[in-house]
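thread: overnight batch results

M.L. [08:02]
morning all. the overnight job finished for the chain we discussed friday. pasting input first so we're all looking at the same thing
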Amino acid sequence: MEKRYSEMTRTELTAEIADLHAKAQKAEQMGMISEFSVYERKITMAKSYLLDPSVFEAGETYPIQGDPGSTFKILYMNGIFAWGYRNESHELEAFPIAMLVQPS
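M.L. [08:03]
and the structure it wrote out:
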């Protein structure tokens, strides 16, 4: 039975991310775009568990990784998910924290 990311150690998460990168690369080379996308999402989730959620603060606005010019304003945090609004939208969304550019 597989462990949940929340149950894995940092070492296990790092190994899982490396394995997912290899699978994503293979899927991309084979032209399996939807499978590639699934692996990319899993990588983002695993990376989120390597980050400290307390670094991200409600009320603050962060750039979105891989989406130049887009920002995300955090309304509240729930585990590794930041809930808030993208680009001044009024539609509530949730992002895994690995999708946000970490504060320095």
